[in-house]
Amino acid sequence: MGRTQVLDDVTGTAPPGRREWIHGVLLLCGMTVVVGVASVFLQTPTSIKAGLATTFLLLSAGPLLAAHPGWLELFRAWVGRGSVRWWLGVGVVAALVPTYWARGELRSLPLVALYVAAPLLITADRPRRPRALARDLAIVPLLWLPLEFGLIPGDGVVLKLAALNILLLLYVLERGLFEPGRLVASRKVEWAWGVGAALVFLAAAIPLAIATGFARFGLSRTPPLEQFVSLVLLFWLTALPEEALFRGTIQGLIEKVSGPWIALAVASVIFGLAHFPDWRYILLATVAGGAYGLAYLKTRNLAAPILTHFLVDAVWRVFFSGAT
After folding, report:
1. Model confidence pLDDT, tens digit, residues 86-127
2. In sequence order, which residues have a C-beta less than 8 Å from that of residue 28 and are 6 or more positions away?
3. So where are the chain's domains?
4. Model pTM greater than 0.85?
5. From the centroid of its chain, how far is CA 253?
6. Alpha carbon of 138 to those of 124, 148, 181, 276: distances in Å?
7. CB-count burial class (<10 Å; 0-12, 13-18, 19+) for 19
8. pLDDT (tens digit per residue) in 142-176
């Protein structure tokens, strides 16, 4: 029995058929339109806009399609074929070339290639040792901290997408640590926990943020079209990658060695500390991490915490100014 058949027996899903291919094409076309419109607002030369847009689209395709169960299982079957994981790593680096070429920063690509290759080298014996939890934990800071502290030269947006692709490869396709779901809430329970957690957090956080001077009320003056594009990118570049990292990966890995509530608490604290050095931001982010983690714990689907995270950040962006 082949790997694909085993996965189908376990998950009850099948590789993409005609309808899924059509959905995939429509999703990619939609992303192309959003990226095209977003690039108009970039205050950069046309060549750099083109490079960023190309890289963005290439690095968005994998996460976008992996959100569909049929495509996810197809990707998992591909990754089970030996060297495919290495070719995917090469593909991530290749996708970055247009941006680095346009920026005249090709000299930085070897360091970027090392950043991508390091977690693949550390896990080179997969899938023969499927329980290497220590290394799974070690890879998290290896992917996260270089970007957090700006150690990798290049555009932070596309580097975040590159890291998301590697994270999905290592923890979703190979380990099956968490399911990305459809990214957009589709079940009542996901909407209930996603919206409910956001409302409860905002009810407590807004008075605290105003009282401490962290934020002040003030409607955004951004033009409607630009605001819409910024919110779409907020969903894709902040809510999605951060929830995949902190809830799907960090909370999921910690839960393997502790209870779910301990994992939620620890992941929330780590999320809060990631917003160092403003103590107000650390406090609010830690509480927010608890809300996001609870939404994930109750649904076991990233769609709920992504929705919570997006709604919280969207409220800050649209209705408050002065927030860090």
Report:
1. 999 999 999 999 999 999 999 999 999 999 999 999 888 765
2. 57, 61, 64, 65
3. 3-174, 188-321
4. yes
5. 16
6. 14, 16, 25, 21
7. exposed
8. 999 999 888 999 888 899 999 999 999 999 998 88
